[in-house]
Each structure stands twice: as structure tokens, then as C-alpha cells.
Design goal:
The chain is mostly helical and 95 residues long. Helices cover 59% and strands 0% of the residues. It is built from four helices and no strands. Helix 1 crosses helix 3 and helix 1 packs across helix 4. The chain is globular.
């Protein structure tokens, strides 16, 4: 699967992973509100987030620090985190 680097594409991919891994029903990636609070409004817990983080880590080949999990409270923040990690990885590869 090709790497997604556009923030909107990353948001859709994160939403798709979230829906698939957590078996969320009646939600499409396009209909997933990227700003919805994952803990308070979806009810995911730290194990759910760890599962999603592992899938995203493997797909994007980036490390999602466990200490950063509490900051990743919605899909948009997760996508922005991934985008930042991809940018850092790109800069490191260029040097």
C-alpha cells in the first residue's frame, strides 16, 4: 500500500484503521469526525489505542512513543503526530 503523506489522507487512513481494528459499526472513514474525543465519545481505552498505534507504526514505519498516547486524543491529533514523525524521518534521511 502506498504511503499516505497528505494530512487529509492520513486522517482518512487513521479513521479507517480505527474503524477496522476497533470494529466500530455504522461509521465510515469519510463520516468519522476527526475532532471527536476518542476516550470520552468513542470509549476507546489505552489498549485500543496501543492496538491502533501498532498498526499505524507498521504502515508508516514510524515509532509512536507510548508516553505520547495521552496526547493523541482524536484522529486529527494522531494524523498530525504521524505527519510530524514522517517529516522528521524525511529530514533525518536527507542528512
Amino acid at each position: 500500500m502506498p504511503m499516505k503523506t497528505n494530512i487529509e489522507e492520513i486522517i482518512l487512513h487513521v479513521a479507517r484503521v480505527m474503524i477496522d481494528e476497533l470494529k466500530l459499526e455504522d461509521i465510515t472513514p469519510e463520516g468519522f469526525d476527526p475532532d471527536i474525543d476518542l476516550v470520552d465519545e468513542i470509549g476507546i481505552d489505552s489498549m485500543d489505542l496501543a492496538t491502533v498505534a501498532l498498526v499505524l507504526r507498521d504502515h508508516y514505519a514510524i515509532r509512536i512513543e507510548e508516553d505520547d498516547y495521552p496526547k493523541l486524543t482524536n484522529v486529527r491529533l494522531i494524523a498530525e503526530y504521524i505527519e510530524q514523525k514522517l517529516s522528521e524521518k524525511s529530514v533525518a534521511a536527507a542528512n
